Amino acid sequence: MGSRINTKEAVKKAGIKSFFYSTFIRKGECGQFMNSGKSKSFIEWIKSGKVNQRLVIITFMLVPLTLLIVFTYIPFGKMIGFSFYDMKYIGDREFVGMQNYIEVFTRKDCFSALKLSLYYIVASFFQLGLALYFATILSAKTKGGGVFKGFMFFPYLVCGIAVGFIFKFFYTRGFVLDTVLQWCGFNLEQLPYWLKDTSINNISVAATSIWRYMGQNMVLFIGAIMSVDSTLYEAASIDGANGWQRFRYIIVPSIKTIIVLNMILSITGSLSVFEPPYVITGGNFGTGTYFVIMNKLAHESQKVGLASAMAIILLVMIIIVTAIQKFIERYYFGVGDQEAIRTIRKQKKLLKKEQEGGR
Amino acid sequence: MKKATLKKAFTVTLSAAMVLSLAACGNSKKEKPEKEVMDVTIDQIKLGEDYTDLKADLKFLTHKTDVVDTTFKQYIEEFQKLYPNINIEYEGITDYANDITTRLTTGDWGDICMIPTTVDKDELGNYFTKLGDKKALSDIYEGKFLEAYSYEGTSYGIPSMANVQGVVYNKAVFEKAGIKDVPKTPEEFLGALQKIKDNTDAIPLYTNFAAGWTMTAWDAYIDGGATGDPDFAYEGLTKGENPFSDRGDGTGPYAVYDTLYEAVKQGLTEEDPTTTDWEGSKGMMNKGEIGCMALGSWSITQIQQAGENADDIGYMTFPITVEGKQYASAGGDYNYGINCNSSKDNQIAAMCYIKWLVEKSGFAQSEGGLSAVIGDEYPEALSALDGIELVVNNPAPDEDANLFNDVNNDSELGINVSGAIPTEIIEEATGGTKTMDDLVNEWNERWTTAQEANGITH
Q: What DSSP element (H or E) covers A256?
């Protein structure tokens, strides 16, 4: 018993608070000390396995958690507060309750801007399709595979603003895109104004995000494909499976978690597109997405409260969309090793039928 | 079991810590640092005589990113000949108008900045040092230009220079197109643009649409310059009924905006406004590839320096004639302001530097602007405007000092802030369906709603 008191005191002296004491000492270490019968020094205590392990966990988590709290959660909390005020950046604020939220729903421009997200959602499907295609090809042994991977991943490393400027010149009349198309036999007169023509400018802008994010998706897919057990391929080739069958029955089922994850990221990303339209067109000529309009309200019209409310409504929408996606995923595809709910039900039905038939 | 409880304890503590940190943040409302009481005003300081042994390190936030490492360095060197112990560090901000507002709210941003338009007049005293009584300062500086950042008789800012709002044009292109006299009415202007289109390869009017901020030049014409009335900004625009309607005599906001609408509609501007390039446009204008651009007088020197044909660049007023007379609105550019939370020494040092910048540096002249100092000469670039009356908008009375900003923000028309109106004009005139009348009705409606929300009834 004496040793226990000693350790208690030692810990207190070292200035460690009761949280540590209760988690580290009461739960495991005391017994050890008591059994050994000798009082260990603080250094030894702190070096002992479990304490050490937890200290490592805490110290490692401290930095990212602090950053997360300081730069994400506190500003977010503040923003929730802002959304209930009629306020500018500088000057008095007035509490208006739900007024800002009501205004977001009654304004025409806020929700009609969300329609533009459809362009980006469609683009994200193209993006995932392309990424999967290249990932499948490049995960097999290809000549110069590393170079291709590098080239395709490279756009993701370029800052979004720079990408915007690149494409601004890319789409300028008579510049890169037009020149290339002219080599292919088009006349300049036949070509549209890529950013001015309201029937295609959203497609032009959405295409830039395919260019930027395709490589990143591809790398994730390659990683997942690499982790597929290679004996499966061998078995498949013995069974005489061709390339498509291998893709359909081995690769896709094995990496479905990553596919779904990428889909969720792409679709939530599509709802909150900001950089491409902001930099390339400034949101003009009908390319102003929800975020661009939010930015305009906050910075040009100084309606900070309204813009905060818009941000929170978008957050809620993204949560809902993600939840729906998650549900669909579980129902049709299953998560990880878990079978899809639909297949489980089918199996149950089948089982029932068999039992009934057996009777 | 043990593991589970441990985990739980850990989660609970963590979340508690998170909540606490949030609460702590909420509770510890930042006490505003005690303001130094300043009894020094800028008019009392004698440059080179007072405070010459003052020691201070100043931080200066500026929008002039292009000259931070060149002209401003020379300024510091010359200033330090008088005040050797005052160090100044410039920080150039590219997206100045947006960034500075956010940084101001922290109170700890530096010592001198260019006051952004987003600060309401009655808030000036909370952020900036009193530079002096407006009356006393008016003996040295043009009182008209001080109005913008004075509140209840106290001045908080001094303009780095003043601009005239006109149209910068290429004389050689105009000559080649066969235009003898500078156009004086919207019709003549559109006719001249048509001539440029027919007779030369130049783009008659380059909108610089893509840059965004360039659009506000059109907003700057609508008050004093388009009416000749220094009270129009307050009486006609802020408080007036349906200010955007056609006045029928080719003046006022309608005439300005309609000129832009027609120019775009008739194909007298560049083909694709979405891909215009501001930096490139200066060189194009200098080379004679552009006929004219709607920009304040600050742009003249930049365009002259962008190529070899500096002599071709001219400046004219916006082509509106009110009862046989032409006016040009003029007003202060960005004003220098001093952080009222800085230490007293820093504030005094900052005052010395601002005084030196305004009176001795020659900054305004080198930028092609008017100096705020009474008696300073017109810069050469503006000599063509001799004989044209400059109109400086009269300020709103103190009780309505924020009224324009409030109506402007509520209506989201962003006059002089975002250029939302000219932007919309170009969009609709390029490929849209709305006519000028539709647009005018829409703006009037939004303006009136915003006016009503701020207690203005007709």
A: helix A256-271
